[in-house]
Amino acid sequence: MKDLCLKLAYSDSEQEIINILKKEGYWTNSECWQYYGDNENNFATVGNQQSRPEAALVEKLVNSVDAVLMAECLKRKIDPKSNAAPQTINEALKEYFDIYNGNLSNLDTNTRKKIAENILLVATGKKQNPCYTIIDKGEGQYPDKVKSTFLSIGKSNKLRIPFVQGKFNMGGTGILQFCGENNIQLIITKRNNNIWKVEDSLSDNLWSFTVVRRIDPEKGARSSSYKYLAPDNSIMKFKADSLKLLPGDYPCAYDKGLEYGTFIKLYDYQMTGLKTNILFDLYNRLSLLMPQVALPIRLYERRKNYTGHTLETTMSGLSVRLLEDKNENIEQGFPTSSEMIIQGQQMKMKIFAFKKGKSEKYTKNEGIIFSVNGQTHGYLSQAFFSRQSVGMSYLANSLLVVVDCSDLDVRSREDLFMNSRDRLRAGDLRSKIENELQNLIANQQGLKDLRERRRREDIENKLEDSKPLADIIESIIRKSPALSKLFIQGVSLPNPFKPTKTDSEEKYTGEKFPTYFKLTKKYTIDKPKKCPINNKIRIEYTTDANNDYFCRDSDPGEFRLFFDQQDYPDYSINLWNGYGTLEITLPKGIKVGDNIILRSIVNDISRIEPFTEEFVITVAEEIKKGQKKHGERRPPSKKGPGDTGLDISKLNLPLIIEVKKEEWGNHGFDKSSALKVLDSGDNGYDFYINIDNIHLKTEEKTNTTDDARLLQARYKYGMVLIGIAMLKSHNDKKNDLSESQREDDENIYNKINEFTKAISPVLLPLISGLGDLEIESMNETFDDSQT
User: Fold this and answer.
1) Burial (0-12, 13-18, 19+ Cβ within 10 Å), 28
2) Is the pLDDT of residue 768 over 90?
């Protein structure tokens, strides 16, 4: 049995496993295979797990983290389900590994590496579809317990253990469908002799092992099923002090002895798009999917023919990576801290703004990730930042927001996340969170300043070139009554730039522990802050706190808001360069004329007494859509003698910038790209025109009738008008869409990009051909068709 176990462990393809089991007489003997979870219909659970291989792999690693924490609890002879056990993951990490506040950034590199030797991820086999082995020195299992732990589905094994991540007992089954053609997984385990033996009736402490595989539909079944190897319905076992299962120096994958714990090997794993050295792409993805992983994990590259400075490293999560690489990759002043309270549920956020071109090694398409106890449970794509309600198109590829949902209660987590823990669930809570994020990001002053700087860098030197084009577009619209009627909306901005601070101005330097946190203006019963009943209200503080005061890993500050001696249920707080912006949603049940007295408290470990402020809000009448707000000035009338009613200053004319071939990389263009639209953030748009489009260049070379300058002008004006028309159509209809339809329809910019790319081959022939049509030729064509 030991020899068979090691042969399986040292194999590096599923075909090798099949050959070994055939030789032993197991593979084709159906009596040797039992249903996973004692459920013939187990594919219903297994097939409804993670949609991507790296997300499924994370579940296995999280199970290893749980196993190590369980072992530490049992070493102390504490029942993990009792009140004597840690009640949160952070408590367990502090008590067992001296990790303060559950943050690995509080440990030095050598300490993290030492702890990481408890959980290993080893790559062996082929470069494409390799084998991945997860090894942990955790509790391990007795042979008699393997069926009810590793091979169970839907049991309540961890349901009442508060300091572990696993709750749903799906056994990490999500990885199976990514394991080769036959979905083969090997499990080897032995109970840790150093921990408390909870059940005296368990058998001697032996190694045990089994193989999991997928069986095609049989005996009239309508779906596949999963089975595990158990001849005579018994898990195979043997006695040994240790097994050579731990990696040694490269390229040796099996050199050192494992005395206890668990060894799980995944064969021919279909790690789509992540085929490089495990320390590169996969390391980056795992860091993102485990942004604040509870325990560090040691990664080993042991496939042959790999070169590099090092072939092993410690994975400590995205938060540690970003902190260590902060100066090289993160913009000045970031990350900044924010906090949301929605329906009484607290979520803390870190907003990272990457320097240009620096985000690629940290994220792919993820813009906002939602984590629970350090594991990503779902995300919103970068397209979120390009929504018109957010207005951060210029920063869409440079932003990452990490929302920590660890403090959500159980019901809220269930409402927000799918059980597979890799995607969000649609619903009221998600909608409210998205709305609050939209508002918070759109109004975050640091992001607004950065957006303006990026925009300035892109277009400042091209303004003179774009002005004649905008003038001609304006002229075209003036001459056409139909176009004038279509586009007489919006605001033209004569100055495309806001006044910004110069680089010579002093950078903001805050304090780790602020010396003040106070209102910029007092609001009392006599002079309250007025808020329309259908609006949010904004209150501003001044402080000398660091921007990351509320979200940092070490000694963060705390903000609390009270109403009637109770925690206020709906608000957000954001810090930026000496100012704290508090946004409040009025509570349910209030009426016009009510006075609301609120009290805020800011505290941290350095303070004997917290900073306390009190302010009063008076509820005012509802502001209806289109109604002039308090203090808003009406624009002067421009009507005069002979006025046609067309106010050209109200035309929504974009800023138009030409992009040449050598600049394609800055805009995601290729030879077929035509038009890219970005939201400038001020109810206006910037249009980037690819003047080296392949179809335009071809037309310039082959058209012997029209001047090349005329062709280029037609192309640019045509594309701009198409873009404006699509934007107007989108804006006209979006208010009538449902929430889900609005989300699907939100990224109009991608649609403009794709549509103009599609129309670019025919645009110039269309303009030229239709322009040459005459009524006589149309009559002849009509007569011929009738004949």
Assistant:
1) exposed
2) no
Q: Virtual CA dihedral for 199, 201, 203, 209, nearest 10 degrees? A: -50
Return the residue matching tokens 């006075």.
595
What pLDDT is recorded for position 230? 95
Q: Count H helices, E strands: the chain?
A: 20, 29
- On whether residue 638 sits in a domain, the answer given is no
DSSP string, 379-440: EEEGGGGGSTTT--GGGGGGEEEEEE-TTS-HHHHHHHB-TTSSSBPPSHHHHHHHHHHHHH
In a domain, 603, yes or no: yes
Quote the pLDDT of residue 200. Answer: 54
pLDDT at 738 over 90: no
Instruction: Report pLDDT digits (tens) over 234-252.
Output: 999 999 999 999 999 988 9
CATH number at residue 550: 2.60.40.10
CB 440 within 8 A of CB 573: no
Integer-rounded Cα Rg, in Å, for the chain is 31
Q: Which has the higher per-residue pLDDT, 561 or 730?
A: 561
With CA atoms as reference, report the closest residue to 574 among 405, 333, 323: 333
Q: Which residue has the higher pLDDT, 561 or 686?
A: 561
User: In angstroms, what CA-CA distances link 546 with 332, 556, 740?
Assistant: 12, 10, 38
Q: Evaluate whether residue 308 is within a structural domain.
A: yes
CA 669, 673, 674, 678 dihedral sign is: negative
- Our CA angle for 576, 580, 582, nearest 5°, is 130
Residue 4's SS3 state is: helix
Give the range of the structural domain holding residue 690, as residue numbers without chain letter: 469-492+653-771
- Enclosing H/E stretch for 539: strand 536-543
Residue 642 pLDDT more than 60? no
Q: Are 749 and 393 in contact (CB under 8 A)?
A: yes
**Per-residue model confidence as pLDDT tens digits over 397-406:** 999 999 999 8
- What is the rounded CA–CA span in Å between residue 571 and residue 566? 14
Domain closes at, from 601, 620, 639: 620
Q: What does the block give as tokens for 134?
A: 């997860």
pLDDT in tens, 196-220: 776 655 556 799 999 999 998 877 6
Is residue 545 scored above 90 in pLDDT? Answer: yes
The neighbouring-strand residues paired with 133 are 122, 265
Mean pLDDT for the stretch of residues 353-361:
88
Q: How many CA atoms lie within 13 A of 663 on its CB side?
A: 14
Q: Evaluate whether 244 touches 7 at the Cβ level (below 8 Å).
A: no
* pLDDT band with cut points at 50, 70 and 90 for residue 486: low
Q: Label the pairing between strands 399-404 and 366-372.
A: parallel
Q: Is the pLDDT of residue 777 over 60?
A: no
Q: What pLDDT does 707 receive?
A: 78
SS3 744: helix
Considering the domain architecture, whether residues 308 and 338 belong to the same structural domain is answered as no
How many angstroms separate the CA atoms of 522 and 614, rounded?
Answer: 8
Burial class (CB in 10 A: 0-12, 13-18, 19+), 217: exposed
CA dist 363 → 286, 359, 438, 678 (Å): 11, 6, 20, 21
Looking at residue 387, its pLDDT comes to 85
Q: Is the peptide bond before 610 cis (omega within 30 degrees of 0)?
A: no
Q: Residue 496: is the preceding peptide bond cis (ω within 30°)?
A: no
Confidence band (pLDDT; 50, 70, 90) for 65?
very high
DSSP 378: E
Closest of 349, 315, 334 to residue 398, by C-alpha: 334
Residue 337 and residue 296 in one domain: no
pLDDT in tens, 676-707: 888 877 657 888 899 999 998 888 888 777 77
Rounded Cα distance between 31 and 34, Å, is 8
Residue 651 pLDDT > 60, yes or no? Answer: no
